[in-house]
Automatic annotation (TrEMBL):
Biased composition (Basic residues): 8-19
Transmembrane intervals: 37-59, 79-100, 107-128, 165-188
Protein name: Trp biosynthesis-associated membrane protein
Keyword terms, alphabetized: Membrane, Transmembrane, Transmembrane helix
Taxonomic path: Bacteria, Bacillati, Actinomycetota, Actinomycetes, Micrococcales
Signal peptide residue numbers: none
Amino acid sequence: MAEQGRRAVARRGHRRGHGTRGVTVKVSSETSRRLKYGAILLAVIASALVLTASTQTWYTLHLTATSGHAGTLTVAGSAAAPAVAALSLAGVAFGAALALAGRILRYVLAVLGLVLSASIIGSTASAIGDPIGSGITVVTNATGVAGDASVRAIIARADATAWPALALAGGIALLLATVLVVATGHLWPVSSRRYGATEDASSDKHAEPSDDDDEHLSAADQRARARDAAIGDWDELSRGDDPTAAESDDDA
């Protein structure tokens, strides 16, 4: 009895193990399309947000009255983080390339996406962490004062807008889109290409109509067909062929 019990337990374990072996996750085509286009859309929207933010005002710098350059200066995102605009354009191209990429190329592009998103986050975070330092070039061009310490001495304060935070959010969203590509890229549908008609279909399309079809044609169509046949005979004569040879074989 003990031996039979051990065998029964072994059989149940074998069946249980056999049932769980080779289990694969099946995703419907609709779900795979949603994953693909969701990641692409997120990457494009995130990059477009960063690009838009780079053209807006990030900081307003207030200069000290004692410096002789009293007033305010605005610092755009392209000046506060010069690399962000180019990186965001590359992010838009990254999203567009994902729509056409195959399985292997998706992961190659994902590496590029990680580099782009990390660079955007780093550049934006650097500008957020030092608003005055990000506007030194603007102040130097406006006042003629050079040198990091000298420029900082004539800046009283810097007021930030919401655009630096939005640019940072766009960089994080691009990073999430890239992670989504890495995690779900193997589930995306494979692009298919439809080619033209086959040679047999082409030959059927251009096959000469039978004589029975002439009964259903109008007089104008019959004249057009006769004219086409004459042109075909002339082409055969030009190539050195005898157009009556086929008719002689048919009569024989």
